[in-house]
Design brief:
alpha/beta, Cobalt-precorrin-4 Transmethylase, domain 1, Methyltransferase, Cobalt-precorrin-4 Transmethylase, Domain 2, five-stranded parallel beta sheet, 30% helix, elongated, binds S-adenosyl-L-homocysteine
Length: 250
């Protein structure tokens, strides 16, 4: 049988949010490749080899997957959320572009998953119901100056915004700087939402005005959603509903 690489998204955490298409890929695979916690989400079974790797070796992992597929293995490359959002799909194509010609003859397909910002938005109500954008706040793979420029322009354009990788132990000060950039442009009462470990038993949702946001409200398991100027909150006893209206008055 000829090998393939299928790049799949495992969704934000709850197995009920994995698509049936991805479940089918995982059933057919001979090998699973990915970052340790994501590979561990795929149950062990006879005939399946699980290859766990560290977070920072995306390109090595992609090359490993492609070389196994050339040997006839059926390789699932797993990411959390969606594999095309700050995840493995780009790494596989980057490796294929620079690698041996045989890699470009392989069957390589991408199978979407529910990305963190959409699961978070659903848990909060509909804060991304109008125009929005999405920015990765990690400066591991790009200069901080570019992050700051994109934040500033997105805030000026009054997008709702979703921020991935807001804060890590290695980068404790970046998110504080991001909040300062937002405060330069956005009103103090504009809503900001912290959605942690969405769809898992640890899920925690916090909604505050920008003036009350602190860097400690975010960590690496949090996706942050900054509301647009017209994003609204409906207070309720069991947690508020937050939404952005479908229209902006002409
Ligand atoms: N491919 C993934 C994103 C990988 S980047 C996706 O599509 O969701 C990792 C970042 O995603 C984390 O730092 C966090 O900001 C966010 N994230 C992933 N899972 C999450 C979850 N269950 N709840 C909140 N944020 C999450």
């Amino acid at each position: 049988m000829s090998g393939w690489v299928r790049i799949v998204g495992l969704g934000p955490g709850n197995d009920a949010l994995i698509t049936p298409e991805v479940v089918g890929v995982l059933e057919e695979a001979t090998d699973v490749v990915g970052y340790i916690p994501y590979v561990r989400r795929v149950p062990a079974r006879a005939g399946l080899t699980r290859h766990e790797s560290d977070n920072r070796v995306e390109l090595d992992r992609a090359q490993h997957a492609l070389s196994m597929a050339v040997e006839g293995r059926r390789v699932a490359v797993v990411s959390s959320g969606d594999p095309g959002v700050f995840a493995m799909a780009s790494a596989v194509f980057e490796a294929a572009e620079d690698g041996p010609p045989a890699w470009r003859g392989l069957e390589v397909t991408v199978h979407p998953g529910i990305t963190a910002m959409l699961a978070a938005a659903a848990a909060l109500g509909a804060p991304l119901g109008h125009d929005f954008c999405c920015i990765n706040l990690s400066d591991n793979l790009k200069p901080w100056a570019l992050i700051e420029k994109r934040l500033r322009l997105a805030a000026e354009a009054d997008f709702a915004m979703a921020f991935y990788n807001p804060r890590s132990k290695a980068r404790p000060e970046g998110f504080g700087r991001a909040l300062e950039v937002l405060r330069d442009t956005c009103a103090p009462d504009q809503l900001i939402m912290f959605a942690r470990a969405v769809s898992t038993p640890d899920q925690a949702l916090t909604v505050v005005p920008l003036s009350e946001a602190t860097p400690e409200m975010a960590d690496m398991r949090t996706v942050v959603i900054m509301g647009a100027s017209n994003t609204r909150i409906i207070p309720r006893d069991d947690g508020p509903w937050v939404y952005t209206p479908r229209s902006v008055p002409v």
